[in-house]
Design brief:
The protein is mostly helical. It has one domain. Helix content is 72%, strand content 0%. Helix 3 runs parallel beside helix 5 and helix 5 packs antiparallel against helix 7.
Length: 120
């Protein structure tokens, strides 16, 4: 009774704001490390279908984005989303949910850095 309408509303709101939450344009290619941070953060908030991160990442790489962005999105997109955080926030706690979010963002940045370090 609560989860389905709540999920629907949050997904619609995130979808409506995706242009601001995921501000990658051609200028973002020159952002450097900031692009990785934006990708890790936005990827943690966005909701996408299972395995849809692959075409997103391939498309961004095709546009010339850095491997840092690709590595960050590869971890953050499937790991967590704003709707999932909203739905489990009451059952867990705000502190635990925020910690999960920060751990996913940090892990995504670490993965992006690892991809760059390995010279993909």
């Amino acid at each position: 009774m609560v989860l389905v309408p709540e999920y629907f509303v949050v997904v619609v709101v995130v979808g409506a704001l995706r242009g601001w939450l995921f501000p990658f344009g051609h200028t973002a290619r020159s952002w450097g490390v900031l692009a990785g941070l934006v990708a890790a953060t936005a990827g943690t908030v966005l909701v996408i279908p299972t395995a849809a991160e692959i075409p997103v990442i391939v498309g961004l790489l095709g546009l010339g984005f850095s491997p840092l962005v690709a590595g960050a999105l590869l971890i953050s997109l499937p790991a967590l989303s704003l709707p999932s955080m909203v739905m489990v926030g009451r059952a867990l706690s705000l502190r635990v949910t925020a910690t999960m979010c920060l751990v996913v963002v940090a892990s995504a940045l670490a993965a992006g850095g690892l991809v760059v370090a390995l010279g993909s």
